[in-house]
Amino acid sequence: MFLVSGRGSNFQSFVDHISLGVLERASIQAVVSNHKGARALDLAREANIPVFDFEGVAGVKFASREDREKCRQAFDNACLQMVKDLRIDYVVLAGFDQIFTKEFVNSLAGRIINIHPAYDLRTFGGRNMVGGGVHRAVLSNSVSYSGCTVHFVSAEIDQGPAILKRRVPIVNEESPESLEEKILKQEHVIYPMAVQLLIDGRVILSQDGRTCYVDSYSNNWDINWWKRQVAYLNLKEHGKEFAI
Ligand code: GRF
Question: Which residue of 16, 90, 103, 187 lies most exposed, with the fewest beta carbons within 10 A?
């Protein structure tokens, strides 16, 4: 099940990876949003995947803090119910802009993942590190690279254990926009790979949920993955007509 709030490019990359046979033994049972008009929902409808929009809290004014928290709780409960009813294995956040209750995160421990558009989540993750703000922060810190990280979701925002990371170099005169574009391309490639690793049982989360061990190498797993992923890269490079 996907949770989305915006344009849905990561969601679309999963749709493409599944339809091309790159991502194996995976199907998307539902796409849920806290924003009725999210473009990601249109993409899901186009892909014939059931969509749900529940009233959310992000960008909404409430009469009181209590009302806001009630709404958050109701959203989380509705999602949890769906996870149970549809027997969902994994909840994938793809540009989801709402913070969960601790209970929600804890009850899905090891089954809920996110992607963040930075390499160093300690410095460039957290409550205020969203959208272009992440890239502006990276560029004003004079670091030589940024990147993206797929991680388990824990109660501390963007601080759950990393499953996969990819670096993206920062070049002279890099702008937040150019950096975002380069990173997003890499997100589309590593996020489905991380999910395949989970599905294939190659990601082991420690008992305390603080670290995880990932085996992407034994039995040529990575080579076989890349061989399949060429079909997706061709699609991106040349358009649908050249898809394998
Ligand atoms: C991505 O940059 C992702 O890293 C962050 O939100 C953005 C979502 O983009 N969590 P999209 O909706 O998948 O296009």
Answer: 103
